[in-house]
């Protein structure tokens, strides 16, 4: 693909799929954040000029109102313009990528609307973030466009929403804290437990219903895959590693074991359910583990606490009751959602794309992610080191948290490029790998919704009760 000549004045951010439900939350967050940073030039891109014009007028008015309230001059405003670019118009997308510094993609399903956007950004050397949870698609984009991004210098980051920034960053921080406390320790496993309040919007449900699943490929493996290869998001060269097949099988077994209810001594034998996003988030965390060498035996498991940390600890083994109810409900919902035609029909009737929670409902939501990373127990003393990290987000996970994570990811690429970790070989990577502490800092010091981050490292006997710090 020919590279379009660079414009002398690129816009800061282009929001592709700007009229989508989540994109409006992203715009609101960027607008509020601009009150404390330099002005932002934002292009609203999509396929319908009338809708784009209406959105541009709406948010220009909101920005003027905010600027007056906060008496902002040099800071405190975004400048909006519009650009018509259809997801199938390769020429328009190339021109869109050439005129901007960072693209935020919010138009899903990404299998249908995202491929040419990634191709354009890779060709034009434009940094890219999105909110997809489609790991198979993201892995295929790396295979197809990694060499192009490597030449152009683009950074391409998928899965920058609630799936999978909280999980990825929580484990990343816990691994780092554990390594600082015990540099020679052999890291063995990581858990995250999620306690959330919120619902999926129509676009997310439609993406889930239409997500193509290659069942024949997944079930033909020595150990069947959940959604896809556990290492689908890693650099393609990992597939030539002699340990690739054994690692893939080991992680696939762990993903299946993670689908069962579990009891945890950290919650005094309180029970947890498998988190419904675990098959997605685990692939991101394992890609980070390979890229940043968490350990050759590292394995990640992701759980859901229906009643929260304190109540799960208080209920102890009785917590299995809500866990079983949640697990049955989730299984039935996924079976209905993936039924041919029925899933998409029900979503279109009950929660069509473009619909979702109100602002007040989003405000009532929250997401708490508890992470624990542990070393192998000493064979003589039975002692092991453990690092705990907790991230607490404000607002509905699928809307406010997703908007915050992807917006801060884009701002990290735009404003903090000199502070970022080294770029990966092909420009593709995970949030922890390519943004790391820069993104953690931005989330923690957000002027809109600061994320509470706490951590603790301790050395304990492997078999003793261990309460959350």
From TrEMBL:
Gene3D superfamilies from the UniProt entry: NAD(P)-binding Rossmann-like Domain
GO terms classed as biological process: glycolipid biosynthetic process
Domain Saccharopine dehydrogenase NADP binding span(s) in chain numbering: 15-131
KW Secreted (keyword) present: no
Keyword Plastid: no
One GO CC term on file: mitochondrion
UniProt keywords, alphabetically: Membrane, Transmembrane, Transmembrane helix
Membrane-crossing segments per the record: 318-341
InterPro entries: NAD(P)-bd_dom_sf, Saccharopine_DH-like_oxidrdct, Sacchrp_dh_NADP-bd
Record family assignment: Belongs to the saccharopine dehydrogenase family.
Name of this chain's protein: Saccharopine dehydrogenase NADP binding domain-containing protein
């Amino acid at each position: 693909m020919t590279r379009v000549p660079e414009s002398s004045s690129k816009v800061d951010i282009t929001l592709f799929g700007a009229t989508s439900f989540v994109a409006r939350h992203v715009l609101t967050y960027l607008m509020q954040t601009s009150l404390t940073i330099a002005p932002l030039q934002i292009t609203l891109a999509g396929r319908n000029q009338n809708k784009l014009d209406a959105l541009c007028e709406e948010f220009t008015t909101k920005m003027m109102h905010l600027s007056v309230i906060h008496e902002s001059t040099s800071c405190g405003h975004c400048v909006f313009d519009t650009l018509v670019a259809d997801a199938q118009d390769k020429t328009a997308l190339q021109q869109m990528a050439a005129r901007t510094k960072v693209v935020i993609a919010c138009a899903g399903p990404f299998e249908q609307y995202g491929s040419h956007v990634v191709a354009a950004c890779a060709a034009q050397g434009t940094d890219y973030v999105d909110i997809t949870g489609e790991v198979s698609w993201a892995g295929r984009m790396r295979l197809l466009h990694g060499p192009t991004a490597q030449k152009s210098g683009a950074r391409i980051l998928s899965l920058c929403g609630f799936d999978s920034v909280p999980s990825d960053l929580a484990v990343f921080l816990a691994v780092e804290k554990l390594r600082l406390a015990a540099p020679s320790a052999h890291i063995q496993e990581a858990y995250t437990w999620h306690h959330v309040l919120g619902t999926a919007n129509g676009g997310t449900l439609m993406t889930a219903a239409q997500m193509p699943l290659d069942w024949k490929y997944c079930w033909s493996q020595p150990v069947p895959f959940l959604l896809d290869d556990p290492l689908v998001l890693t650099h393609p060269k990992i597939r030539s590693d002699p340990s690739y097949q054994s690692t893939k099988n080991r992680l696939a077994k762990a993903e299946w074991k993670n689908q069962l209810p579990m009891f945890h001594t950290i919650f005094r034998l309180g029970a947890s359910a498998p988190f419904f996003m675990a098959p997605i988030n685990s692939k991101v965390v394992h890609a980070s583990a390979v890229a940043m060498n968490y350990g050759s035996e590292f394995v990640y498991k992701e759980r859901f606490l229906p009643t929260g940390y304190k109540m799960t600890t208080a209920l102890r083994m009785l917590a299995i009751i809500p866990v079983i109810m949640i697990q049955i409900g989730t299984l039935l919902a996924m079976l209905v959602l993936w039924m041919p035609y029925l899933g998409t029909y029900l979503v279109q009737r009950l929660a069509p794309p473009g619909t979702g929670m109100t602002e007040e409902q989003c405000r009532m939501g929250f997401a708490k992610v508890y992470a624990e990373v542990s070393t192998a127990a000493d064979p003589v003393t039975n002692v092991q080191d453990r690092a705990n990290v907790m991230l607490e987000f404000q607002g509905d996970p699928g809307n406010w948290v997703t908007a915050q994570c992807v917006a801060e990811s884009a701002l990290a690429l735009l404003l903090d490029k000199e502070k970022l970790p080294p770029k990966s070989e092909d420009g593709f990577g995970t949030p922890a790998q390519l943004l790391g502490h820069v993104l953690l800092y931005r989330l923690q010091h957000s002027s809109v919704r600061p994320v509470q981050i706490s951590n603790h490292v301790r050395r304990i006997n492997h078999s003793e009760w261990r309460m959350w710090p």
